[in-house]
Amino acid sequence: MEALTKTNNKSDITHYTHPEFDxxxxxxxxxxxxxxxxxxxxxxxxxxxxxxxxxNRTRAKLATSKNNSSVRFENVFVWSDDFGDRNICHWFKExxxxxxxxxxxxxxxxxxxxxxxxxxxxxxxxKDVLYFIPNFKPESIxxxxxxxxxxxxxxxxxxxxxxSKNNDLPRRIYDFFINTCQYQIVTPSTIYDKVYISxxxxxxxxxxxxxxxxxxxxxxxxxxxxxxxxxxSIQEKMSVLHFSQSxxxxxxxxxxxxxxxxxxxxxxxxFQDNAKNIGFKGSFKHILKPLTVRDITGTTxxxxxxxxxxxxxxQLELSKIKDTI
Length: 325
Fold this sequence. Notes:
Layout: E1 5-10, E2 13-17, E3 24-36, E4 39-44, H1 52-55, E5 70-78, H2 88-94, H3 99-108, E6 113-117, H4 123-128, E7 141-144, E8 149-159, H5 169-180, E9 194-197, H6 212-221, E10 225-227, H7 234-243, E11 246-250, E12 266-272, H8 275-282, H9 285-288, E13 292-300, E14 314-315, H10 318-324
C-alpha cells in the first residue's frame, strides 16, 4: 500500500496511517474475528489474546463462548470496531472514513472480502458506498451476523474515529468520492428545485414533531417535493440534493446528507428553540456553513425522552412555515 505509511510492526500486527486522513488501519495475520454489538473479539489460532496496547483498544479479548458458525477467507476488510445500530450521522463520521483505505486495498487485493453486518440499520447505504470504488464487484461483500466467527489469513481493521479540529469530514469524503474515485454525479430524470426531506416515516427516537402531517401539507403546497432519504441510495441522495436549490428539513442525523448540496443552496431548518437542540445544530456547522440557512423554530412540549436530551417532542406553528418558505 504505497499511499499508506507503516507506523508499527510487531509480530503479525502492522499499523498503517493515511497521508490525508487521521485514521489508522491495522493488519492482523492469522486471526479469528467475532463481531459483537459493541465491539469485537479477536484471537489467533492458538487462542492467544492480542495485546490491547497493540490494537489501541481494550475490547480485544479471548473468546470464551461457542459461536453459531464459522467462515474463512484469505483477506478480510472490516469497517470499524462498532457493530451496533448506528444512524447515518454516526456512521458517516466514525466509520465511512475507512473507505480511503479500502480504495487502495481493493486495487491491490482484488479478492478481499468486505464484511458487513447484515442487520445494520443503514445496510443499504453501507453497501452503496462500496460502488464508488472503481470496478467494485458485488460478490466482494459478505454479510455477517453477530457472534459468527470469521477466520482470516489477513484481516484489515479500521481503527479510530476521524479527528479534525474543524470537523469537515463529510465534505472531505464527498470530495474523495468525486476527485479520487472519479465519481460523476448522475443527473436525475426529474430535477426538483425544491425538496422537502421528510421525517414522517421516521420512528427512531422521541424527537417527534407532533403536528408533522399538517406541517408537511403546508410545505408540499408550497411546491416542495417530499422525499424520504432513508429510501434512497447514497448515489440517489447525491443526485437529488446536488441539483436542488431550496431544501426544507428537520434538524437531525439526516443533516449529514447536506454535504452533497451545492454552496448557497437555501436551507429552511426546522428545530426546537431550546439549548440542547441549538447545540445539536452547532454540531453540523461545517456542513451548514456553505449553505444559506434560515431557522424556523418550534416549542418543546414535553421533557420525556428516550434518554437523549435532544430528543424531546415538539410542535411548530403553521404560520411560521406559511410566512417563511
